[in-house]
Design goal:
Layout (H helix, E strand, L loop, with lengths): L1 E5 L4 H12 L3 E6 L7 H10 L4 E4 L5 H10 L2 E6 L6 H6 L1 H21 L4 E7 L22 H19 L4 E7 L1 E3 L18 H9 L6 E4 L11 E2 L1 E3 H15 L4 E7 L5 E2 H12 L5 E4 L14 H7 L7 H14 L6
Parallel strand pairs: 1-2, 1-4, 2-3, 4-5, 5-6, 6-11, 7-10, 8-13
Antiparallel strand pairs: 9-12
Helix pairs in contact: 1-2, 1-8, 3-5, 5-6, 7-11, 9-11
The structure holds UDP-4-deoxy-4-formamido-beta-L-arabinopyranose.
The site of UDP-4-deoxy-4-formamido-beta-L-arabinopyranose has 18 residues, from helix 7 and strand 8.
């Protein structure tokens, strides 16, 4: 039985495909390649020894989706595809709603029409917004404060409603905290276009000499050293969480939202120091003003994932910084 993977050549999708193929799962990779490279397929093949089945397609084209579902024996879907730049979502919200929400509605409609009932969805801790308490449990109220977060929250609500309307559906939204790291082989990793928005790819680009110094956004937060604290999670742990979620869907109906995080946070400067110590590379940095929209500190309560999925993180911050650097140092220009 085939698992359709949307956004399969993106950062998290590609690492999931590796993990799934190595566990003998049959995956069909789908991506529109707008934000990723075909070279990812070669990397997946090199690491797993399996040539992945790939279809270039866009979720905004429903007839194409219907065609894909009619000719493949799809049993479940892992849905990663979507835009993910917070700032861009604020300047171009309709593009985000069109792609992330309307594209996902197409997917859900086709799943319903074709009687495919199992879905794992790539959600985000961003759905919670300003923490009322820390760590966030899944019961924490949702209040995303940018269109990107809204699209994730809307998609979650649609999944919940669909599961309520039809008891055959089983769906899990996985709320990721801050995924970093790369495949330990150094053959797959994160490859953002242009200047990275996120901390880890910025650090690796400073390390490789492409960017001069890291700007640390604020050192006056109420945290251990004044810099922002996040729950960083290794992308391989995250990938495994999806494999566990598929197993869960095979035995449970209905909808669940589940945090995927380590359950503790690190500050910006703690991450920089770990990177320097483990990799023996200096990361010059300057303190800059706070970035608009940033929160001081949040991390996951990951007990639900342990209880329902039997999943906990296995890899440490040292693994994350080592593997991020293995990827970037061997591929200074990413996949190109
Ligand atoms: C982490 C920390 C920054 C860059 C965002 C989205 C979220 C999710 C992941 C997914 C913060 C600081 C960062 C830099 C810095 N999206 N920082 N200098 O903001 O927690 O989450 O990405 O697709 O939805 O909101 O992640 O990596 O941008 O920042 O000091 O150049 O690093 O202030 O404290 P964030 P991030």
């Amino acid at each position: 039985m085939t698992i359709l993977v949307t956004g399969a050549t993106g950062f998290i999708g590609s690492h999931f495909c590796v993990q799934a193929l190595q566990q003998g799962l049959d995956v069909l990779l789908l991506d529109n390649l707008e934000n990723s490279s075909l070279k990812v397929l070669d990397a997946i093949e090199q690491v797993t020894g399996v040539k992945p089945n790939f279809i270039e397609a866009d979720l905004r084209d429903k007839s194409q989706l219907t065609q894909i579902f009619s000719v493949n024996k799809i049993d479940s879907v892992v849905h990663f595809a979507g835009y993910k730049a917070v700032g861009e979502s604020a300047t171009n919200p309709l593009m985000y709603y069109r792609n992330n929400v309307a594209g996902s509605i197409n997917l859900l409609e086709v799943m319903k029409e074709q009687a495919v009932h199992k879905l794992v969805f790539s959600s985000s801790a961003t759905v919670y917004g300003e923490p009322v308490f820390n760590p966030y449990t899944e019961e924490h109220r949702k209040l995303p404060f940018n269109p990107y977060g809204q699209t994730k929250s809307m998609m979650e609500d649609m999944m919940a409603d669909l599961c309520k309307s039809d008891s055959q559906f089983s769906m899990v939204a996985l709320r990721y905290f801050n995924p970093i790291g790369a495949h330990p082989s150094g053959k797959l990793g994160e490859d953002p276009k242009g200047i990275p928005n996120n901390l880890m790819p910025y650090i690796t680009k400073v390390a490789v000499g492409e960017l001069a110094e890291l700007g640390v956004f604020g050192d006056d937060y109420d945290t251990v050293d004044g810099t922002g604290v996040r729950d960083y999670i290794h992308v391989m742990d995250l990938a495994e969480g999806h494999v566990k979620a598929i197993e869960y869907l095979n035995n449970h109906k209905g909808y669940e939202a589940i945090n995927l995080g380590a359950g503790h946070g690190y500050s910006v400067l703690q991450l920089v120091k770990a990177f320097e110590d483990v990799n023996q590379v200096k990361i010059p940095y300057v303190i800059k003003p706070r970035r608009e929209g940033d929160l001081a500190a949040y991390w996951a309560d990951a007990t639900k994932a342990e209880k329902l999925l039997g999943w906990t993180t296995q890899l440490t911050i040292n693994d994350m910084v080592r593997d991020s650097w293995a990827w970037q140092s061997r591929n200074p220009k990413g996949y190109n």
